[in-house]
Amino acid sequence: MSETPATPPPARGRRWMLYAPLGLAAAAGAGFWVMLRGLQTGEYDPRGVPSALLGRQPPDFTLPPLGTLPPVTVADLRPPLPAPILVNFWASWCVPCIVEHPQLMRLTRDGVTILGINYKDRPADAQAFLQRHGNPFRKLGTDEPGRVAIDWGLYGVPETYLIDRQGLIRWRFAGPITPEVLDKDLRPLLRRYA
Amino acid sequence: MARALGSSAPPRPSLRQPMYRFPKAPRPLAGGVPGRAGPSPLRRILACLPLLVALAGPAFGAVGRPEDRLADPGLESRAEQIGRELRCMVCQNQSIEDSDADLARDLRRIVRERVQAGDDDAAVMRFVHDRYGDFVLLRPPFNPVTALLWAMPVIAFGGGLAVILTRRRRAGAVEPPPLTEAERRRLADLDGGGA
User: Where is it located (chain A) (predicted)?
Assistant: First the structure.
């Protein structure tokens, strides 16, 4: 019927709602893209968990040495420290540790102190790893039972902790320190806590 | 990411399950061909079932090696209850009692050590919580970080209720616009025509 009144055009104030789904989809797409990029560069880890030790002193520990390097003790991490220190948990059986190794070597060359804790490894394997890839560690301890690692709240290798000059844990990174993580996160932090 | 603790740890011997090989012989026609003796493939599979179930036996029991369990059944059940409240940080969706990751095994041992040493449940939980933070608790505590999480049911319910109420009120408030002159005339026509 021609006389049936047509539905009135949407009020001006409501018209934007027509585009709302499109806008939502675009925002979700952009968020997804950012997430994927983060996954690729290692900046975003969906399984990443903040450390419970941030802002606290490292737990007490003593560890047996590995090879000829001096062993790590908690005294190395007590203030006053001349510069921030990195503590790196690693293992020869850990593939991401190979990925991050060149970055550790570069940091050592730049004069950063890295203390290594070898996690659940065979001493011979660990030494072979260091001979093959180079040794970035000033001091090295072995945590074969993995108990010290649990005191630190470790849940995988590699894991890296930054201890500031006051001897407090300021940063924990679970996963390999890729070149991106090194440049975007670690270097600025080392500068900030220097 | 391939940084799980369990999978790449020093190799330990594992039981390989024998694979069932399907016979190469062609399948017998429906109803079977008389004279061709021998059990059907289905029969053979069925015959293997008890063996397979027996091999899968350990999967039905608790994870973990028997020698890790406490001798005292009371303490052991307490330790298990604590372990069910603690998240395995490697698998992240299992409790340490359910997970076979190395780290979960280490934590199971620590829980049992502390239980045996006489710690109460809260002290054991605190020990693990101090090291791994809120995420290790499968029932997260209420604090500023988890407030949104805990409040979410209330927010979702309240939001839905608000939407329903406002829509209802609006629907009741809208009155149909008054008839135009043309519509009134047409209505009168229709009424008149019917009479």
Answer: Cell envelope
- Specify the amino acid at residue A119: Y
Domains contained in chain B, number: 2
Task: Out of B3, B10, B131, name the one closest to residue A52 (CB).
Answer: B131
B71 and B129 housed in the same domain = yes
pLDDT for res B146: 85
Chain A contact for B86 (CB, 8 A cutoff): no
Q: Which domain holds residue B153?
A: 142-169
Residues B95 and B150 in one domain: no
Cβ contact, residue pair A96, B1, below 8 Å: yes
Question: What residues have CB less than 8 Å from B173, skipping those under 6 apart?
Answer: none
The answer to whether position B45 is within a domain reads no
Question: Which among A155, A88, A95 has a CA at the least distance from the CA of B102?
Answer: A155
Both tokens of A185, joined, read 């996160």
Smallest Cα distance from A58 to chain B, Å: 11
Report DSSP letters for A101-142, one per residue: HHHHHHHHHTT-EEEEEEES--HHHHHHHHHHH----SEEEE
- Across the interface, do A49 and B133 touch by the CB < 8 Å criterion? yes
Of B8, B135, B182, the CB nearest to A93: B8
User: For B84-93, how does the pLDDT look when each residue is reduced to its tens digit (9 = 90+)?
Assistant: 999 999 888 8
- Which residues in A lie closer than 8 A to residue B2 (C-beta atoms)? 95-96
| pLDDT tens digits, A173-188 | 999 999 999 999 999 9
Residue B137 sits at the chain A interface (C-beta within 8 Å): no
> B94: distance to nearest CA of chain A, Å?
14
Is there a single domain that holds both residue B106 and residue B147?
A: no
Please check whether residues B74 and B129 belong to one and the same domain. Answer: yes
User: With b meaning 16 or more CB within 10 Å and e meaning fewer, what string describes A144-177?
Assistant: bebebbbbbbbbbbbbbbbbbeebbbbbbbbbbb
CATH of the domain at B77: 1.10.8.640
Domain range A74-192, CATH class: alpha beta
Chain A interface, Cβ < 8 Å to B: 3, 45, 47, 49-53, 93-96, 120-122, 145-147, 150-153, 155-158, 174-176
Residue in chain B closest to A46 (alpha carbons) equals B1
